[in-house]
Amino acid sequence: MKSQKIGSLSQREFHLMQDNTEQIQTGRGRRRWMRRLVLIVIATYAGVCMMFAAFQRQLIYYPTREYEGTPRDLGMAYEDVAMTTGDGEKIAGWYVPAPDAQATVLFCHGNAGNISHRLHGIQLLHHAGFNVFIFDYRGFGQSTGTPDEAGLYIDAVAAWDYLVKTRSVPKNKIIILGRSLGGAVAIELATRVKPVGLIVEATFTRMAEVARHLYPLIPTSLFLSDRYDSIDKIAQIACPKLILHGSQDTLIPFDMGRKLFEAAIEPKQFIETPGDHNESGYTYSPAYTDQLVSFIHDTLGL
Questions:
Q1: Which helix (H) or strand (E) holds 23?
Q2: Are 196 and 190 within 8 A, CB to CB?
Q3: Which of 95, 240, 257, 292 is the most buried (most CB within 10 A)?
Q4: Torsion of CA 5, 8, 10, 15, to 10 degrees
């Protein structure tokens, strides 16, 4: 049968043209849909990045105001301490004296809670025969202000000055101890002053590496304001150094502790402990507490 003519086209040719037109329109529709999808993904990703940039300090610092206890609850006498920083903030702390103390430990705590959440660690140091001075960073506990990297360094200097200038503690009797974020604060402080020894545990190389570990799909290093580049500083510290890190640490990977140790100069010591981030370190068991105490005794020549 002959195909009918539509104008100068056969019916078959006309239908083929219609099919081609529909395919072209369908292809264009798919491309438009894909472009919209790509734009939505890009906009969403950009929004997430902007949210990270805007709220990054809320992702780093988790202060609480209310104390959940005091050293007296664990049978330790203590003094409430109030200091004024170089930029006018009021910083609160506890001085916990030990009878016949052989050294004073200046304790820089981590990024969450306040000094009342470190009572067990304070108790172990106190029972080992050391005075302990622990302070809250700005915005934590009863301290005024809002936390940021530069501010925490200023707070640590104020704590050091309190021991040296107000209590007349000899510099060669002060051990700086920092845990987690406090390790970065302790490392910075040790570059500015001359402690007899430095102890850090469960701390990191630099904040950008922690952010990359926790948020691998976001270019966090482009947005970070508080960088805490400890690995670039630790080689400047000449005093004996002890670094402890938990082998099961999921927040700050064990490898970061090893890298920090490798970047440090002698004399130095590394102790691997069991436990995840909040369970590792010298508080994990009496055996690891004893190793920390031995380090302090060796550092002091006792």
A1: helix 11-60
A2: no
A3: 257
A4: -110
- What CATH homologous superfamily does 64-300 map to? Alpha/Beta hydrolase fold, catalytic domain (3.40.50.1820)
- Beta-strand ranges (E) seen in the chain are 5-6, 9-10, 62-63, 79-84, 90-96, 103-108, 112-113, 130-135, 174-179, 197-201, 241-246, 268-273
Catalytic hit among 116, 136, 155, 180 = 180
Going by pLDDT thresholds of 50, 70 and 90, the confidence category of residue 235 is very high
Active-site residue (options: 126, 155, 249, 280): 249
Residue carrying the six token digits 């910083």: 91
Q: Is the pLDDT of residue 25 over 60?
A: no
Give the position of tokens 């105001």: 65
One DSSP character per residue, 190-205 reads HHHS--SEEEEES--S
Q: Mean pLDDT over residues 173-181, rounded?
A: 98
Q: Is 172 helix (H, G, I), strand (E, B) or coil?
A: helix
3-state secondary structure of 18: helix
Residue 292 near residue 199 (C-beta atoms within 8 A): yes
DSSP string, 78-146: -EEEEEE-TTS-EEEEEEE--TT-SEEEEEE--SEE-GGGGHHHHHHHHHTTEEEEEEPPTTSTT--S-
Every domain of the chain and the residues it spans = 9-60, 64-300
Q: What is the pTM of this model?
A: 0.86
Q: Which of 109, 126, 245, 277 is catalytic?
A: 277
| Nearest-angstrom CA–CA distance, 276 and 177 | 19
Query: Is 277 marked active-site?
Result: yes
126 is catalytic: no
What gap in Å lies between CA 256 and CA 259, rounded to an integer?
A: 5
Residues forming a β-bridge with 174: 104
